[in-house]
Specification:
Length: 273
Amino acid sequence: MAEVLEVHGLTITAKDTNRVLVRDSSFSVDAGETLCLIGESGSGKTLTGKALLGMLPDGLLMAGELSFGGEVMSGYGKKEWRQVRGRRIGVIYQHPEQALHPAIPIGRQLVDLLRSHLPVTRHAAEASARAMLDKVSLKDTDRLMKSYPFQLSGGMNQRVMVAMALLLKPELLIADEPTSALDVTTQSEIIALLQGLVAEEQLSMLFITHDLLLAGELADTIAVMKQGEIVEQGTAAAVMHRPKHAYTKQLLNCRSSFRFTSEEGAYLYVGNR
Ligand SMILES: Nc1ncnc2c1ncn2[C@@H]1O[C@H](COP(=O)(O)OP(=O)(O)OP(=O)(O)O)[C@@H](O)[C@H]1O
Ligand SMILES: [Mg+2]
């Protein structure tokens, strides 16, 4: 399968302290594949995602090579990043307010986004926006187009953010803990929605989470980060059932639903108990 994203030796350092926040990290995402980046808080997951969107904060220095669709992005300037971010690489965050403007109706935000990238009429853009809201299973799209984010529930706003991220038909979706702030039921609804859309659109996804069980459900491949380094990566089955690194084993042992069985010599899912 063709590689959509390739990251080689990504290293991110704080300029003032020289502290290395992400060290020599390499991974790739194939077309239609989901890579889950997991790890403890502060391990460098969000910074990795930001580097791939050209959104690293000013005080940080990046080294290494980022390729997307066969093109090297690591030397991109502001203008080139603007053509990729949101357009060819979509992004969803933990909190919808990171992506949605609080004082602009949902419909106008979607229409403006489309028209800022594509030469489409307002009428055509509105039709696409409605179709996209429908695709993320939001009902009553006429009313929704006129609503402000504060008039919607957290789960609905999360769906609007997914609609916004997919509106321009990106090749890659970066999702940074998109369900961590939601209740369990809404969380599984949003995950099911993402799984469906990823399969339907043949999207590649980089899904960032600290939840290994969720990663096991979603991922084709998993990369485990600890203190800025990828300590283990492989297929979801290999990482979940035959982890090599002590840190991955520790993550699995924290979850009561996994037990190491000496007969099988593997970690097996035994359900919640
Ligand atoms: N602008 C910055 N300047 C200096 N250090 C930073 C900056 N942003 C993040 N860091 C540091 O980089 C490290 C990695 O941060 P990052 O946000 O990527 O962690 P994370 O894995 O996403 O954690 P979480 O699971 O809590 O979201 C942390 O130690 C953080 O304090
Ligand atoms: Mg983070």
